[in-house]
Predict the 3D structure of the following.
Amino acid sequence: MDYIAISFVRGPEDVSVARVLIAQHGGHQGIIAKIKRAEGVAQLDTIWAEVDGVMIARGDLGVEMGPEAVPMLQKRIVAKANRCRRLVITATQMLESMTTARRPTRAEASDVANAVFDGTDAVILSAETAIGAHPIETLQVMNRIIRAAEGEVELEVIRKWSADMEQLPFPDAICTAASAAAKAIAASVVVAFSERGTTARLISKQRPTAPIVAFTPFESVKRQMALYWGVHPYTMAKIEHTEVRVEEAERRLKAEGLSRAGEKIVILSGTRVGQPSGTNLLKLHEVR
């Protein structure tokens, strides 16, 4: 498996214990904290440092804190996740009526769209596909709602968290600049060389106007990056020299039909291969 989700997380110690157990058994899975209780909400600021992402478990939150609290909690948690550059998944009863019906209610369609407008990375189906009578149709409906919402959403609203930060680490600053550059030059693709997935996650949080193509040497990281918003992950062998790496990326993009000669692309990389969180290079490139 690629991720392990922990239910009823109360604080960072719940996550750190799980991470130690995973490592002891030779695992490298990402950890998703399911926020279901008031204690977890209260400890969010300390939980972020320990997790790869969070899931907003709205059903249990509604039981624990009352249904009237859930809408604002959803917005707060999504906003904090984006500010901390962590994955965030919105869950529970998104298209619940489709467990038996072929069409969702208008309120459910609005619920899915509002999660997109809030800035969630992913939405999840539960009973609709676990025991539902129309699992495929439910997925198709959710897909259409998401695509329609993303066609209308003002991505600048989701990006606004970055403007609040006074000083950024190099990888964050590079990704912020890359998103702006992609818009300025009308780039067809943003390429991220990302051995551990960090660069892909950071540029994903910027919601660039161009699709993100992420290359990693590791199959497990490729699968994990599939959960990141806007990221199309691929594997590529480690290449030491930056220019050779760029040439191979260009070849792969053209072979996959993701970019054509004459189009402009933005490239994110580190100058030293094998150095985690070492992204320090932004290159604007015209495909030949």
Observations:
- The CA atoms of residues 92 and 158 lie 22 Å apart.
- The chain has two domains: 3-158, 164-286.
- The chain has a mean pLDDT of 92.
